[in-house]
Amino acid sequence: MRLRRSLVSVVIIFLFLGSALVGFSSMFMGGREEEVVVVLETSRGVIEVELDGESAPVTMGNFLQYVEDGHYDGTVFHRVVPGFVIQGGGFLPDGTQRDTRDPIELESDNGLRNLRGTIAMARLNEPDTATCQFFINLDDNDFLDYREGGSDGYAVFGRVVEGMDFVDAIASVATGSRGPYQDWPVRDVVIVRAYVKD
Fold it and tell me: Residue 10: which residues within 8 A CB-CB, separation 6 or more?
């Protein structure tokens, strides 16, 4: 009888630990199922972005890791093109580029479109090259969407739910050249802090 009770206790403990580990992994890995909102406190106002981990788990997990590492704090929106996008997350105000982790696989074929107010990952010409830089669409940029047999597209992984007026304010700033870069705001637009909303 004592042996049976001991075995039952051991099984219960393992079941508890297993469920705890599953909960932990779903919270901190790319496959979060609960609603996740990231707050971007910028020098032009606060922008809140709701992430879509169901459609873009790898992309969301990558973005959240950069957020939790403090990577975006102090970076700038370095590319502002009215009627197109505002892009940031990779450069400091002096033009220094932040170190990045390895690139991630492209998740542009996820059913999400590059509509006004959505957030997507920037990348190089090759598909699987996105690291930390992201952009917010200022218009419905359907030419950035994935098309089978055509464009590889850009992976959308969320949308602005608060602060689109501040996004538009950033889009209206004067821009110029900074080193080899074009469309850089004359007065820096800084991401003061990025964090996951409670």
Answer: none
